[in-house]
Amino acid sequence: MPLWIDSLFPDTVLVLGPGQNLLRLAEARLQLPPRDIARAASGLPLWPADRRGAFSHWQGQSLCLLARGAAHHYGADVEGRADAETAGLLRAEAMGAGDLAKLRARALPDVETLIFSAKESFFKAAFPLVGRVFGFDALELAEPPQTDHLAFVLTQNLAPALRQGQRVRVRYVRLENAVVTWTRLSA
């Protein structure tokens, strides 16, 4: 049975579950006609003009975030909780000194997985605007984590619509053995 999160943004749904038919389930939920989604050379989806979204997968679980319209770009990610060794690798790869300083004010379980996933969601939403790969250091926590979202600040100019100092909010939910993150950026 899929997990649905309907209150992300207006005209947007997120579905998480086993299998590959989640796009069709999300299209039906939003009353959108079924469409196949091609992939760019980068591997990211090429969305039709009437919809945008994001995909992710982890250990047999797939995630589809789908939104009606083209006013925003979306990013979503699902990541399993990391063991101690993997958490150390994620900390070294995805977290800078600014992130670590903000985390001292509010410790969270599985914070390395959460930060990594949140930055992955941002990358997926930002890539259509940026058009190139950029590092995890492009985002830094702007404040200690909240119970349902993370607030980041851009540390560099990535695109005309993504400037240094701009704040970005990434929402999240914790599942029994994973975290799910999502965000949207104006197109």
UniProtKB/TrEMBL annotation:
SUPFAM superfamilies: 4'-phosphopantetheinyl transferase. One of its GO terms (cellular component) is plasma membrane. Pfam families: ACPS. One of its GO terms (molecular function) is magnesium ion binding. Mg(2+) binds at D77, E79. The keyword NAD does not apply. InterPro entries: 4-PPantetheinyl_Trfase_dom, 4-PPantetheinyl_Trfase_dom_sf, Enbac_synth_compD-like. The keyword Transferase applies. CoA binds at S56, H57, D77, E120, K124. Its cofactor is Mg(2+). Residues 89-152 form the 4'-phosphopantetheinyl transferase domain. Keywords: Enterobactin biosynthesis, Magnesium, Metal-binding, Transferase. Pathway: Siderophore biosynthesis; enterobactin biosynthesis. It catalyses: apo-[peptidyl-carrier protein] + CoA = holo-[peptidyl-carrier protein] + adenosine 3',5'-bisphosphate + H(+); apo-[aryl-carrier protein] + CoA = holo-[aryl-carrier protein] + adenosine 3',5'-bisphosphate + H(+). One of its GO terms (biological process) is enterobactin biosynthetic process. Involved in the biosynthesis of the siderophore enterobactin (enterochelin), which is a macrocyclic trimeric lactone of N-(2,3-dihydroxybenzoyl)-serine. The serine trilactone serves as a scaffolding for the three catechol functionalities that provide hexadentate coordination for the tightly ligated iron(2+) atoms. EntB, EntD, EntE, and EntF form a multienzyme complex called enterobactin synthase. Belongs to the P-Pant transferase superfamily. EntD family. This is Enterobactin synthase component D.
